[in-house]
Amino acid sequence: MARVTVLPNGVTASCPREGPMKEKPPKRGAVQGWSRGSVRRLRRWFYSVDGDQLDGLGFALTLTVRDLPPSASDWTATRRRFLMRLQRAGMVRGQWLTEWQRRGVPHLHGCVFFPEASEVTPALLQEHWLSSAQEWGAGRSAQVVTPLWGLSGWLQYQAKHSARGVRHYQRANVPEAWQKGTGRLWGAVGAWPLREEVHAVDLEVFHRFRRLLRSWMVAQARQGAKRPDEWRRVAYLRRMLRDPERDRSFVRAVGEFCPEHVSRELLLAAAWGDLETSGMASSGAAHPQGRGA
Known about the structure:
alpha+beta, five-stranded antiparallel β-sheet
């Protein structure tokens, strides 16, 4: 059996492994930068957040330092000091990720939420960061804190930080002093509204669903394609299910940002065997990065 997982902001389809593994997976070592796995887990987390249920006073953060901390553990300690300050100020939930500037110095992106009645301001959050990172030369003018307005603000934050892959310069530019270990590169704290719905399907429905999802994704990409790199994505999506090894292609998993109602329509069509995708795929009732955003 295969499974299709419908989430608030995305969908995945896969064929879970059955039976014991031939070899035990290797023990996880020190984190040495962004990997395909860490990027995939971050995107999956973004898929699962129910933005309609995000309440409270929200802020998006981009926080920088002038000097490179000597080690990843120094940066981790700085981040923890900052989050502890926010928790004492009443933070109910937060999400963070570490990336690097072109000059190889880390910066922290994040979003944080406080109770609606909170008196927290962007200036106060900046002060907490300046106090936490003062030993690395954090400057007031280099910090950006902006309010997150409801679902649209959350989706904008999500789209920006989920679209970057492992080769993006802000994720690949690990400083030489940190090559042996970077520490955790993203995380979430507090109570987040997460939701998913798993559907067990047979292989025929699984294969139909993959083709329908691919058609929808191609249609969405074509609508916004203007630059050469955007057309390259269209070409990539058209061949996303291909693999030199037929057995591997047969079970290739897919996962993509997709509005929940579109995912349900595609799954319903796959279950009924409706392969007339042109109308559904081209209608694209919502933007691929969020529910109608």
